[in-house]
Amino acid sequence: MRFAKGHGTGNDFVILPDPDGVLPLTPTFVAALCDRRRGIGADGVLRVVRSAAHPDAEASAGTAEWFMDYWNADGSQSEMCGNGVRVYARYLAEAGLVAPEGSFNLVTRAGVVPVTIGEEISAGMPMPRVYVRSEATSDGRVFGGTAVDVGNPHLVCPVDEPTLERLDLTRAPGVDPLVFPAGVNVEFAAAGSPPAGADLYRRMRVYERGSGETQSCGSGACAVAAVALEHAGLETGVVVVDVAGGRLTITQTASEFLLAGPAVIVAHGDVDAQAIRQLAPSF
To answer: Is residue 81 flagged as an active site residue?
Structure first.
């Protein structure tokens, strides 16, 4: 089985080219593939498949040729992955499946996303919906937060810088299952002085449902930016969000919510699918 490996600000993915949708992916196979000791290792899997060849996307085949079939590291599927969209787009460009620069649309489970390829890659994310107050529990402490929908669910908890450094995110934060019945990505964000050209600045750590603490979460950075803009009373603006793996820039206009940052393909190769399938039953 052919694969590529890529990352967006440290949020890493195994990329499986499958234009005709014939790979027999299962949750246990994906989890085994993402295992960092016995598989390739990743925060998730991106299957590169044509929209017309996948039942979740065929209705949008006339709008966008390619569908981002995204799987979390535990084998569950997710509606949206901001860094995944950008890495997927970089793969398409480098594989010659789209033009090396310019704009096109991708289908995701959260809808059609416009992407622009340049030195960095920008994705037009679903406009965040900030909708209710809730809480997260971590290290025995309760943190107030705000629920945000960016095509997938988030809980953004403001903290100070020392708390952000000390948080133990080796275990999932506790959340209200009535508010988040399908689970949630939890972001902890500390404010700081914005760099030149930005209106606001946040530093973020994130625990992603299905993957654990990751070095970056694109949709999570968007959720953090949406809450920051709302708390500042701004309807538009530029928010810079630093994550463990680098820097993301989020721009909200009257009609768009853009996520921009680096996306890199680092390897191509073959995976022994039979060896992975033998490992899969243990997941």
So the answer is: yes
Selection from 265, 274, 277, 278 nearest residue 17 by Cα: 265
181-226 pLDDT tens trace = 999 999 999 999 999 999 999 999 999 999 999 999 999 999 999 9
Q: Which domains are present in the chain?
A: 2-122+263-282 (3.10.310.10), 129-255 (3.10.310.10)
Roughly what angle, to the nearest 10 degrees, separates helices 218-231 and 82-94? 130
CA distance 58 to 91: 21
Determine how many CB atoms are found less than 10 A away from the CB of residue 22: 8
Residue 204's identity, in one-letter code, is M
Mean pLDDT of 27-37: 96
Q: Known catalytic residue: 34?
A: no
Phi and psi at residue 133, in whole multiples of 5°? -85, 145
Average pLDDT, stretch 55-59?
A: 95
Give the pLDDT confidence score for residue 172 in this predicted structure.
96
* Active-site residue, from 34, 157, 217, 222: 217
Cβ density class 93-123: b for 16+ within 10 Å, e for less? bbeebbeeeeebebbbbbebbbbbbeeebbb
Q: At residue 33, what is the residue type?
A: L
Q: Which residues are annotated as a binding site for substrate?
A: 11, 72, 82-83, 152, 185, 208-209, 218-219
- Residue 133: CB atoms within 10 A of its CB come to 11
**pLDDT at residue 283 is higher than 80:** no
